[in-house]
Write a structure and sequence with these properties.
The chain has nine helices and 24 strands. The chain has a nine-stranded antiparallel sheet, with no helix packed on it. The protein is an alpha+beta fold and 573 residues long.
């Protein structure tokens, strides 16, 4: 297919209901400016790290596409811009202004690369707004679109200031982290290492991203060492009609290969090191039977296993390794005496039922670098004072180990049946007792009203008389009272039973196929992952968004497991 058509070589193009329009037409110029604006938005979107900002930019691009379609087809009501889209912009402007003073500042290039790009985007938005006003005079236009474009340039102005303020906050936190590390070195105290505080040089918003090492090189790396003891028992009874197996094991792994956070002054986020010792012990059991009765053959099997993981050592001082997940305040901790990569989160004790509870109970307060915490209202989350100091803070002192991805036990069973050329097989797989950090709940339970939610959102707090489930917050466009902070509310039971495979086949009789010089022919149909039985609200309970052993069990927009159907023929010549 050719990229070019040659139709516009003479400077003409078409609109939806108007043919042979000059490319100098005001409507065509407007459409070009909006497309240019969308390109700048795309550049900003890949430069920012704030997930909420990225999602907002995507919504803006969708609205701008609608405006372009509305210019081309002004009589189509599907392309009208509704008032709620402008209101969404206004709410986002209000949210971002909380991080910096609300005074109107001069329009100057931003202090960072991203902020400067946003300012360019604002200027293009203003130009597109002016061209829309011109088109409105000559041809008429959607009033909702004009209002939206006017508010859009305000949004980009605030976004540029927001990016700069976030950068200043990031630098202050980094400086505090360096001070803390220096103090720890001076006093000889073992400090907890937090991955999020470490950061990377290339992760800053004002740095152009490119190819660079993700972790610090370590020439002293060597293989892990494992010492294991196994005691096993196997038996075959009744002429192999019944088989049994039992295995007990105890394994110690030394010099673990773990990504250990390092000070940000190194220019890296982590360093792979041989550190510590971990113990795994458990039991595995299996039983199977094979039976034959004339033309009918059948077999059934069952297995179950349990593993206990425990960190025994973590280097000198046994300092905790605290690693961050895909969003802020999503922490994993590797601690002596606990499994690797346990969830380390704020603890939710319910939802404030009324204002009396808010006034009588601890809740987070504003700080110079963290705003909006004091806006706690009835219907917001109630958090536990973990350390009992009568003060709630977001540091590790008010976090607790609240579970991990490792299951209590895993199991599986299945059966095969065969009769006169017909064969049938089914395989089940199950996991019990694992927890999942479902960060997707940030969006599917956000109660913002701008996207689909889980049905559980219907059971939210509505009033003192309708408190809902007692664990589901009020509807609110902007998260207050730390409702959006990663906590035990995001941890779900990931237990499940899955039918992994169902197959049905038929092997044709030899006297049918020998005339076409075939030795065997089998027709079959197979279903892979057809059914999963679970209380987990996400797409797939067998999920982990991250590959590091210290951050297992996160679900954050992971694609669901594919369900496949196969129909085929096996031929042997």
């Amino acid at each position: 297919m050719e990229v070019y058509t040659g139709y516009g070589d003479k400077g003409m193009t078409d609109l939806s209901h108007t043919k042979n329009v000059s490319k100098s037409d005001d409507r065509i110029c407007l459409m070009g400016s909006v497309e240019e604006l969308m390109s700048h938005i795309g550049l900003v979107r890949v430069l920012v790290d704030d997930v909420d900002v990225v999602r907002m930019l995507e919504k803006i691009s969708e609205t701008l596409k609608k405006i372009i379609d509305g210019v081309s087809d002004p009589y189509n009501r599907e392309f009208k811009v509704s008032e709620d889209r402008t209101e969404l912009l206004e709410e986002e402007i209000g949210r971002m202004k909380e991080i910096f003073s609300g005074e109107r500042l001069p329009i100057l290039p931003g202090d960072s690369r991203v902020a400067a790009e946003v300012d360019v985007t604002r200027a293009v938005a203003r130009r597109a707004e002016r061209e829309l006003a011109l088109v409105s005079v000559k041809f008429g236009s959607d009033t909702g679109a004009k209002k939206y474009m006017n508010r859009l340039s305000d949004y980009f102005y605030v976004l540029a200031r927001y990016v700069d303020a976030a950068k200043i906050k990031e630098k202050n936190e980094a400086f505090e982290g360096v001070q803390g590390a220096a103090k720890s070195e001076t006093t000889g105290t073992e400090a907890n290492v937090v991955t999020e505080a470490a950061g990377t040089v290339g992760n800053s918003a004002d740095v152009v991203k490119g190819a660079a090492p993700k972790s610090m090189p370590n020439p002293e790396l060597h293989w892990e060492k494992t010492a294991q003891v196994n005691i096993g028992f196997d038996a075959s009874l009744f002429k192999n009609r019944l088989t049994l197996g039992l295995d007990l094991y105890n394994s110690n792994t030394y010099d673990l290969l773990l990504d250990v956070p390092v000070p940000m002054t190194t220019g890296y986020k982590t360093r792979l090191e041989n550190i510590g010792k971990v113990n795994n012990k458990g039991v595995e059991f299996n039983i199977a039977t094979n039976q034959k009765m004339g033309d009918f053959n059948w077999s059934v099997y069952f297995n179950i296993s349990k593993n206990i993981n425990e960190v025994k050592e973590l280097g000198p001082g046994n300092a905790d390794i605290i690693s961050s997940g895909s969003v802020s305040n999503a922490y994993f901790i590797t601690r002596v005496g606990e499994p690797i990569g346990s969830y380390y989160l704020l603890v939710v004790e319910g939802v404030f039922k009324n204002q009396e509870e808010v006034d009588a109970t601890l809740h987070y307060m504003d700080s110079p670098t963290n705003y909006g915490l004091a806006d706690t209202k009835p219907g917001d989350f109630k958090f536990k004072d973990v350390n009992g100091d009568k003060v709630l803070d977001i540091s590790d002192t008010d976090r607790a180990i609240v579970g991990n991805y490792m299951p209590d036990f895993t199991y599986g069973f299945g059966a095969t049946l065969a009769w006169k050329g017909i064969d049938f097989g089914i395989v089940f797989q199950g996991v019990q007792g694992n927890e999942i950090l479902n960060l997707s709940r940030r969006y599917f339970y956000n109660h913002e009203g701008n996207m689909n939610n889980y049905k559980g959102a219907l059971n939210r707090w509505k009033s003192e008389d309708e408190p809902g489930s007692g664990m589901n917050v009020r509807a609110n466009r902007v998260s207050k009272g730390q409702n959006g902070t990663t906590s035990t509310w995001h941890v779900e039971d990931g237990s499940y039973l899955r039918i992994k495979n169902i197959s049905l086949g038929y092997t044709l009789p030899e006297n049918w196929i020998k005339k076409v010089y075939l030795k065997s022919a089998r027709i079959y149909c197979s279903l892979q992952n057809p059914f999963t039985f679970t209380h987990y609200e996400g797409y797939n309970p067998e999920v982990s968004n991250r590959s590091a052993v210290t951050t297992n069990g996160e679900d954050y927009g992971v694609y669901p497991l594919a369900r496949t159907t196969s129909i085929g023929v096996n031929l042997t010549f």
